[in-house]
Amino acid sequence: MRELTLNTGINIPIIGSGTNTFGKVDHQYMGEINGDTTEILSAIEVGYRHFDTAIAYRNEAVVGKAIKESGLPREAFFITSKIPGKPEYTNSERSVMEAVEFSLANLGTEYLDLYLIHHPWENLEEMVIVWHVLERYVDQGKIKAIGVSNFDKKQLAYLLAGARIKPAVNQIESHPGKWNHEIIDFSLQNDVFPEAWGPLTRVSPEAKEQLSQIGQAYGKSWAQVILRYQIEKEVIVIPKSHHLTRQKENLAIFDFSLTEQERNMIGQL
């Protein structure tokens, strides 16, 4: 597995697994939590070590349970979680601290590899105040790196100006329906790695046809071509699948490279 070195000096696998429907009835985002670890364990079996969860997903405990069930040491994994950008979690220093401790307890871990502000809100100054609380957790070693999610250029620039510890990651929507090239480029220019959520979503039939044609030359699927395109741009990807075969396929993207012409074509989708 290829890794990138974050600006805090720790390494992150460039491919992780999303988990927002794992451990839930019928794999529905708002489904009841059933504690099923099947998908996470199969992902671990085929080589995933990077898992992305969030307080809002309600399944941090399921991720923590699966990691324990795997029998592998905690340090073998890179775990990301997120604090919601909602007043009940951000309106005071105590609220922020309670959120972090909640995530640590649910995941059953003494530290988080990466902790993100899940969504921005209108009060930019308030976001910086929340950030300063998270910085103290980095100082304590309870969080190895901190970052943001769904921040646009203005929001990220404001945080960069007020941060003592620079954001390590900006997790953003990026897929053929909305590549978000501008915020990806701005993040990279500021030593913040972009990370794509939903990297295989919103792919039109026409786009799938074009991507499949590119993939034929390499014996790869349209989905593998998308993931390869993104990691070649230094974008971390967190695809999600409940199926073992597709979990394997999403990792099998390190044995080919796209041409410049192919990258240009994909970037226009």
Summarize the structure.
The protein is an alpha/beta fold and 269 residues long. It has helices spanning 38-46, 60-70, 87-90, 93-107, 124-140, 153-162, 181-189, 205-216, 222-232, 244-251, 260-267; strands at residues 3-5, 11-13, 17-18, 50-52, 78-83, 114-117, 146-149, 169-173, 193-197, 236-238.
Following the backbone from N to C, one meets helices and strands in this order, namely EEEHEHEHHEHEHEHEHHEHH
Number of helices: 11
Taken as a percent bin, the fraction of beta residues is 5-15%
Shape: globular
User: Distance between the terminal alpha carbons, to the nearest Å?
Assistant: 27 Å
Helical residues, percent: 40-55%
Give the low-confidence spans.
none
Class computed from helices, strands and strand pairing:
alpha/beta
Mind describing the biggest β-sheet? Answer: 8 strands, parallel
> Could you give the count of β-strands?
10
Gyration radius, to the nearest Å? 18 Å
**Assembly status:** single chain
**Average residue pLDDT:** 97
Biggest sheet strand order reads 3-4-5-6-7-8-9-10
Descriptive notes:
The protein has 269 residues and is α/β, with parallel strands linked by helices. 42% of the residues lie in helices and 14% in strands. The chain has eleven helices and ten strands. An eight-stranded parallel sheet has the order 3-4-5-6-7-8-9-10. Strands 1-2 form a two-stranded antiparallel ribbon. Strand 6, helix 5 and strand 7 form a beta-alpha-beta unit. The radius of gyration is 18 Å and the shape is globular. The mean pLDDT is 97.
